[in-house]
């Protein structure tokens, strides 16, 4: 037995990858042939990612030009390093930040490491599909008015489901109040490449934007970039914290692959994204008459039907089991077993599929056939679906750092009502916390955790003992 052989067996199953990484294992976009021959270290002429002055610096300049950013920094251990860096560079120790509650757990880790006090803004919630909507500018304005001493605003746009916020208006509000705007655009590395897809947060005024190339572009898992614009974010601090959070042994394979991806897009982005757009338009038309199945913002479902959504990235396909006698996790399994399609993730009654410029028409045809078949088999069903609500809002008692520095103990999750949480509890994917250290574990939170577990979601905790046990503060 070996990991190499185990992965080979997975690949032999011939499942079509509607999931990340964005290269979709398509050999036409493989930039990593001859791996060992290109796996270098900081030898003469190979430059140094931590102090780039040669070929790496030039590659980062090419990336900045593609994204119209002032500066681009290669990240070889994912967007996590970029989020940690941007937040640490923007917020002094023990200061306050305004944070969208649906941010990735890496944002919360930065809050802990810097002993920051988070002030949460909550995205709207689309109860029809059971997904987070946009964070609206008026919510940011309220939070800033109540917390004028905050140093930065941190948002996720797009979300895992492709929901986009009005970054342009939010950036104007944030800058008017002398704060920094950090946007986790990990799922939006393709934004700004074509008018059919949302514009980049870089173009829209954000000071720091973090993009994961591997999620939606032809680049290997773990490759990402931190894009910086303007003079508000201190570059010396950015360099300092990149040195802290980025590995001291950066992969030249990853950096070479990122530059190959940048070069490809520089030369062919118009044709590649136009081709993807046409595939998505054809897909939308093909699913227009579905009744037992619905697709978010495709077919007969339009973004105007969702007032809690500012805009949607059409590269993200969210399928709802409208009349199917199953939830999203069961739908994901049926797509895998019956139709040879591997989705990205599931939740409640929905399954999420990711598309990219590397997708083939055969893959789209396979998905259309699967949805039409399931629809024909179930359109006469009268399925009574439960309403889907946003996660409850916990009460914050301590900051994350204060909670994690207190004494704690492990107790049964079922015995945790009214205790104060001492770990991050996340539904994964997408990895956004249901509980943050320092928050009170209410009956509503426990009920919500049980409900998502019942549906088949994976609930993890930073202690490694969830969902049976949870780490709580000793009273």
> Judging from the principal axes of the Cα atoms, what is the shape?
globular
Task: Identify the CATH homologous superfamily of the largest domain.
Answer: Type I PLP-dependent aspartate aminotransferase-like (Major domain)
> Which fold name is given in CATH as the topology of the largest domain?
Aspartate Aminotransferase, domain 2
Distance between the termini: 47 Å
Structural class: alpha/beta
Mean pLDDT: 93
Oligomer: single chain
Tally of helical runs:
13
Q: In words, what does this structure look like?
A:
This protein is of the alpha/beta class. The chain has three domains: 32-262, 3-Layer(aba) Sandwich (Aspartate Aminotransferase, domain 2), CATH 3.40.640.10; 269-378, Aspartate Aminotransferase, domain 1 (Alpha-Beta Complex); 400-473, Ornithine Decarboxylase, Chain A, domain 4. Helix content is 34%, strand content 18%. The chain is built from 13 helices and 22 strands. It has helices at residues 3-11, 55-67, 78-90, 105-113, 137-146, 167-176, 213-216, 235-245, 252-286, 328-339, 361-378, 400-404, 443-455; strands at 16-18, 71-75, 96-100, 117-121, 125-126, 131-132, 152-156, 163-164, 180-184, 208-212, 224-228, 294-295, 311-312, 316-320, 341-343, 345-347, 350-354, 408-412, 425-428, 432-435, 458-461, 469-473. The strands form seven sheets. The protein has a seven-stranded mixed beta sheet, with helices on both faces. The protein has a four-stranded antiparallel beta sheet with strand order 12-14-17-16. Helix 2 (55-67) packs parallel to helix 9 (252-286). The protein is globular, with a radius of gyration of 22 Å. 50% of the residues are buried. The mean pLDDT is 93.
